[in-house]
Amino acid sequence: MSDSEPDSLILFRPVGQQELELIRESQNTAFPPRFPEQPIFYPVLNEEYAIQIARDWNARYNDPKCGYVTRFRVRKSFLDRYQARTVGGDPHREYWIPADELDEFNRNIVGEIEVIAEFQS
Asked: Are 111 and 65 in contact (CB under 8 A)?
């Protein structure tokens, strides 16, 4: 992933098979809408945390039992309106994007969403 967009940040998102298929349907340019019981979209700030979730949660509890780590860029000017939150320790940093703002989040993705790791159990 190049640094061709200086006003952007690299983020990560652990996903399961179903979410990955929906991302691929968008030509790897958007995350799918949230379900009503999912009011927040949680992209994370570091690969280590995304791997932990994909490996220890998605690959164990999803059906099918696999998890993926995606990496993508988002315009910093969009993210500046949100505060990065630490949840449970220093490497566990994430943004909390309200589900009704996910379309705008998707419009601020720079380039494609790429899969950088896969876990199966």
From this structure: no
- Indicate yes or no: pTM above 0.90: yes
The pairing of beta strand 93-94 with beta strand 85-86: antiparallel
> Where are the domains positioned within the chain?
8-120
* Residues 58, 61: Cα–Cα separation, whole Å: 6
Provide the β-strand partners of residue 9.
74
% of the chain surpassing 70 pLDDT: 96
What is the CATH T-level fold of the domain 8-120, as seen in this structure? ADP-ribosylation fold (3.20.170)
pLDDT tens digits, residue range 4-26? 667 999 999 999 999 999 999 99
